[in-house]
């Protein structure tokens, strides 16, 4: 055989073997891990780690060299691995980062049903304000209060999964410089998909701490369980270059060390690959880090051990059995009519109705995953039209008064140095039964500066037209300026400088509660604030708007539209059917003293004189309260009046009978006496 | 026969006060009302945790569903009796007569005044009552009022969907409140007022079976309904006179025929 023939044969063999030897993209054009081949087994993730590097010419992010924990750090910087370049080898990062957890700042994404906002709070300036990139009515965009993306991520990134605003590029040169030093907060795939118990989101050197230190580039690696990150990017000067080994070495010798990473070498195999315990079905503990609730009772503190977990989890389901998604990570939120908003028809099948009630057209829908099909015996069908499933089945059992509640994202649950007192800010109140806002596509959503559509005035619930559902509620408290009748929050830095200085000597409770604010305090603060802003200085708190008139006298406008509370529906924890409202008796709700009707919603206000103020639960939806009271009074008076007359009549009759009987006896005795005398 | 007075036993004369239809209606009415009260009280008390005994009452019946079924059965009977009574008072001659007698009159106001003065000892004699005393008329119209309210509100509670569609302003809670309040009033009026008048007052104690056989004795009629008694006596006398006159006329005609 000639040399040419051999070469041709080899080439032919290579061409034939090519499809097998080289991993092909999956069907549909995506990467290997974008589409499952149908196997339910967990793929083994023994993979190379890649960092993100910066191209020195274009300053664009590029994939770095494979991570070797044994590199010579005098000539190269040991970088943290990047989820984008590591996980992105097989999973399309550009598709994933458009998912629900990462697309809050995308204006083209329909916001859907209002959800929990990020709550900025500061006891010193007596502020708690709901923020969201999504245009949920009643929330404010972070830039409206002067929070840059970077600052926002630093404050709230502890319980963000990365991506979204964490990767947003800024036009501001200063922000760009800091981003170069800190890196971008990429999507932390491991935060959800790493089943290793060592995944450290909230530990003393875990994800939350790294984010707070500005170590965005290092945060995901610090949490993975086999890497240690020290130092802080926030402490570095603007000119610091984290990719320059000499600068890193020199900074290490300084008083404020730079962010550096050390890997546990034992986890790397002989090819410097690492075995990750990656799962498709995210364990509930991963979800709980960001989505835990603690409902605080009235008489006794409700401990975690005394509250029951969601019945779905107790039945063996996981969060992702309902909250599903594909590679697009457009997770199903599970509320009614979500499919109309998100455009995902599968969302309808994963709601309460989808699994428990829906009949389906071609095949049965209800009963999925063993979901019991309720008969709702004795329940008038109007309940299903006027109430959401969650109204009867979710959240804490309603009591006479609403209670404070804590959530992971609002109260930093699971992170170091959390203030565990019940009164710590922010104050979230639950359960509040109110009409749910309709979930509108983005074209119809109200701008974030408008107050929440839910009103405290009777009859306003008809405007929203939604079903009654249990909600969490927050009464915003913030400093704002009134311009053309529009209330706009003042930049938080400005507030901190002016109002913070005025309140410098106000004692702050150790419990983390509001300081006791007097009207004089508010007036002083407004007087200081008006000097640094353009419009009229106002303070929103407890449903009221406070302002100074031309003479410097404080005025309070009650129930101001801009001071309305922000509410978002409660969907967990779901109680068992036997523990739903009305399971025992209709009077759970339909009785004069039922909390559903007579419950009181706490009005949370930092103003001393407003402590202990409540609103009626029925203010949150239509209810004929005064008519009921008058009718009740009428009948009580009627019963008293009628029975008094009837009893008097009986007594009168008895009295006359008695008198007549006595008289007859007297006459009889008299006659007997006369007869005896005659004899 | 019971000895009435003196040493002679006398045959007591009875008048038929209420016909069969009236008695059947009354029987069904009180049976359904008492059933409704007995089953209604635990249903009402379930929403009030201070009435812990209501749980025991529920257990005695078996379950809350059982109580509800019995309550609704009683309600159905009450509704049927009410509808029947309406037809009875419109289409039956006897019913119309009874209804007209039961209508309130000016004399009733005078009777109330005289009786009140009598109770206070300011007058020596009671008023003379006709077929129905003012308090018996009150009983009848109170039941009328009660049935309208109880049936109306009860239907709202039974069919809240339909009610929400046609009378949305009449909410479930409002209906429940009115239903309960009126039930309390009706139960008190029944067990205190009505029972005293028909069973517990000294002239009738331990009770009367008038509701069963519909008969009233002459003495009772003379004492309680003298105007009606004398009306009957006059009617009998008039009838006797007319009969005697007809007999006399017939006899004279016969005699004339004989002589001719």
Spatial strand arrangement across the major sheet of chain B: 1-2
- Note poorly predicted spans of chain A: 19-29, 440-464
Please give the alpha-carbon distance between the first and last residues of chain A: 171 Å
Output the structural class of chain B.
Answer: mainly alpha
| Corresponding CATH superfamily of the domain at 20-102 and 133-216 in chain B | Transmembrane di-heme cytochromes, Chain C
Structural class of chain A: alpha+beta
Overall radius of gyration of chain A: 34 Å
Put the structure in a nutshell:
Chain A is built from 23 helices and 20 strands.
3D structure, described in words:
The complex is a heterodimer of chains A (679) and B (260). Chain A has 679 residues and is α+β, with helices and mostly antiparallel strands. Among the domains of chain A are: 42-112 and 148-276, no CATH class; 477-563, no CATH class; 626-679. In chain A, 29% of the residues lie in helices and 13% in strands. In chain A, the strands form seven sheets. Chain A has a five-stranded antiparallel sheet. A five-stranded antiparallel sheet of chain A has the order 14-13-15-16-17. In chain A, strand 2 (52-54) and strand 3 form a beta hairpin. Chain A is elongated. With 260 residues, chain B is mainly α. Chain B has helices at residues 20-45, 53-61, 64-91, 93-102, 106-119, 134-158, 160-166, 172-200, 210-213, 218-224, 226-259; strands at 14-16, 215-217. Chain B is 74% helix and 2% strand. Chain B has a two-stranded antiparallel ribbon with strand order 1-2. In chain B, helix 3 (64-91) crosses helix 4. The radius of gyration of chain B is 25 Å and the shape is elongated. The interface between A and B is large, with 37 and 37 residues.
Strand-helix topology:
The complex is a heterodimer of chains A (679) and B (260).
Chain A: H1 3-21, E1 45-48, E2 52-54, E3 61-63, H2 83-86, H3 93-96, E4 118-122, E5 127-131, H4 149-156, H5 173-182, H6 189-193, H7 207-212, H8 216-223, E6 227-230, H9 245-252, E7 260-263, E8 273-276, H10 284-291, E9 293-295, H11 311-314, H12 319-322, H13 338-342, H14 346-349, H15 352-356, H16 382-386, H17 389-393, E10 403-407, H18 408-411, E11 428-435, H19 461-464, E12 468-474, E13 478-483, E14 486-489, H20 492-502, H21 519-529, E15 536-541, E16 544-548, E17 554-557, E18 566-569, H22 595-598, E19 600-602, E20 614-616, H23 625-678
Chain B: E1 14-16, H1 20-45, H2 53-61, H3 64-91, H4 93-102, H5 106-119, H6 134-158, H7 160-166, H8 172-200, H9 210-213, E2 215-217, H10 218-224, H11 226-259
Antiparallel strand pairs in B: 1-2
Helix pairs in contact in B: 1-2, 1-3, 3-4, 3-6, 6-7, 6-8, 10-11
């Amino acid at each position: 055989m000639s040399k040419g023939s051999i070469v041709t044969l080899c080439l032919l063999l290579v061409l034939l073997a090519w499809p097998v030897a080289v991993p092909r993209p999956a069907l549909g054009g995506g990467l290997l891990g974008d589409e499952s081949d149908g196997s339910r087994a967990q793929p083994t993730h023994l993979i190379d780690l890649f960092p993100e590097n910066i191209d020195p010419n274009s300053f664009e992010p590029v994939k770095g060299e494979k991570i070797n924990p044994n590199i010579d750090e005098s000539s190269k910087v040991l970088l943290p691995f990047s989820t984008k370049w590591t996980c992105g080898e097989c999973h399309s990062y550009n598709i994933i980062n458009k998912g629900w957890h990462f697309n809050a700042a995308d204006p083209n994404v329909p916001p859907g049903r209002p959800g929990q906002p990020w709550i900025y709070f500061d006891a010193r300036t007596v502020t708690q304000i709901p923020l969201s990139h999504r245009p949920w009515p009643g929330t404010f965009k972070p830039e409206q209060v002067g929070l840059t993306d970077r600052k926002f991520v630093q404050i709230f990134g502890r319980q963000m999964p990365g991506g979204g605003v964490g990767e947003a590029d800024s036009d501001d040169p200063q922000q760009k410089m800091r981003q170069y030093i800190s890196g971008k907060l990429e999507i932390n795939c491991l935060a959800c998909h790493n089943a290793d118990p060592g995944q450290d989101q909230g530990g003393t050197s875990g994800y939350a701490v790294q984010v707070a230190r500005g170590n965005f580039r290092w945060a995901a690696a610090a949490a993975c369980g086999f890497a240690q990150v020290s130092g802080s990017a926030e402490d570095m000067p603007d000119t610091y270059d984290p990719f320059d080994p000499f600068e890193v070495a020199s900074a290490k010798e300084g008083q404020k060390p730079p962010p550096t990473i050390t890997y546990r070498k034992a986890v790397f195999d002989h090819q410097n690959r690492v075995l990750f315990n990656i799962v498709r079905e995210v364990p509930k503990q991963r979800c709980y880090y960001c989505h835990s609730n603690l409902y605080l009772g009235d008489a006794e503190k409700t401990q975690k051990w005394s509250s029951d977990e969601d019945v779905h989890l107790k039945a063996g389901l996981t969060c992702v059995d309902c909250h599903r998604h594909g590679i697009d990570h457009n997770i199903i939120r599970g509320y009614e009519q979500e499919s109309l908003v998100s455009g995902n028809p599968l969302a309808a099948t994963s709601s309460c109705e989808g699994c428990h009630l829906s009949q389906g057209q071609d095949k049965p829908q209800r009963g999925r995953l063993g979901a019991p099909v309720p008969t709702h015996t004795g329940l008038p069908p109007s309940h299903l039209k006027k109430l959401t499933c969650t109204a009867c089945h979710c959240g804490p059992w309603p009591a006479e008064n609403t209670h404070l509640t804590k959530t992971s994202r609002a109260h930093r649950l699971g992170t170091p140095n959390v203030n565990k007192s019940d009164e710590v800010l922010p104050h979230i109140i639950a359960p509040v039964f109110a009409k749910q806002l309709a979930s509108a596509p983005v074209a119809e959503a109200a701008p974030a500066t408008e107050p929440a559509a839910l009103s405290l005035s009777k009859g306003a619930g008809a405007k929203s037209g939604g079903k009654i559902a249990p909600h969490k509620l927050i009464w915003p408290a913030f400093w704002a300026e009134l311009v053309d009748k529009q209330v706009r929050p003042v930049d938080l830095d400005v507030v901190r400088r002016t109002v913070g200085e005025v309140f410098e000597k106000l004692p702050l409770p150790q419990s983390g509660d509001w300081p006791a604010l007097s009207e004089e305090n508010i007036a002083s603060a407004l007087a200081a604030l008006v000097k640094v802003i353009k419009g009229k200085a106002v303070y929103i708190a407890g449903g009221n708007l406070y302002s100074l008139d031309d003479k410097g006298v404080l005025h309070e406008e009650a129930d101001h539209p801009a001071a309305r509370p922000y509410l978002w529906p409660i969907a967990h924890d779901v109680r068992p059917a036997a523990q739903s409202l009305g399971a025992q008796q209709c009077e759970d709700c339909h009785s004069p003293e039922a909390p559903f009707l007579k419950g009181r919603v706490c009005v949370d206000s930092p103003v001393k004189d407003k402590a202990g103020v409540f609103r009626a639960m029925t203010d949150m939806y239509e209810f004929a309260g005064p008519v009921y009271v008058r009718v009740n009074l009428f009948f009580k008076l009627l019963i008293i009046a009628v029975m008094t007359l009837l009893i008097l009549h009986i007594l009168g009759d008895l009295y006359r009978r008695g008198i007549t009987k006595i008289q007859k006896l007297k006459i009889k005795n008299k006659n007997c006496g006369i007869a005896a005398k005659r004899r | 026969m019971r000895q009435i007075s003196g040493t002679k036993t006398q045959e007591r004369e009875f008048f038929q006060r209420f016909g069969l239809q009236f008695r059947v209606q009354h029987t069904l009415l009180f049976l359904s009302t008492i059933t409704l009260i007995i089953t209604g009280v635990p249903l009402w008390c379930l929403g009030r945790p201070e009435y812990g005994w209501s749980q025991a009452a529920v257990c005695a019946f078996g379950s809350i569903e059982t109580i509800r079924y019995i309550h609704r059965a009683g309600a159905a009977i009450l509704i049927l009796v009410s509808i029947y009574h309406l037809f009875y008072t419109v289409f039956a001659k006897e019913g119309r007569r009874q209804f007209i007698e039961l209508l309130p009159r000016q004399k009733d106001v005078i009777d109330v005044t005289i009786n009140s003065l009598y109770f206070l000892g300011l007058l020596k004699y009671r008023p003379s009552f006709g077929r129905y005393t003012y308090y018996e008329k009150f009983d009848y119209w109170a039941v009328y009022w009660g049935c309208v309210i109880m049936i109306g509100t009860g239907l709202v509670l039974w069919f809240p969907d339909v009610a929400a569609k046609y009378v949305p302003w009449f909410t479930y809670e409002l209906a429940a409140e009115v239903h309960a309040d009126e039930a309390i009033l009706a139960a008190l009026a029944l067990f205190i007022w009505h029972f005293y008048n028909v069973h517990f007052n000294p002239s009738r104690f331990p009770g009367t079976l008038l509701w069963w056989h519909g008969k009233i004795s002459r003495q009772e009629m003379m004492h309680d309904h003298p105007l009606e008694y004398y009306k009957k006596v006059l009617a009998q006398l008039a009838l006797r006179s007319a009969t005697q006159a007809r007999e006399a006329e017939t006899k004279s005609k016969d005699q004339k025929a004989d002589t001719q």
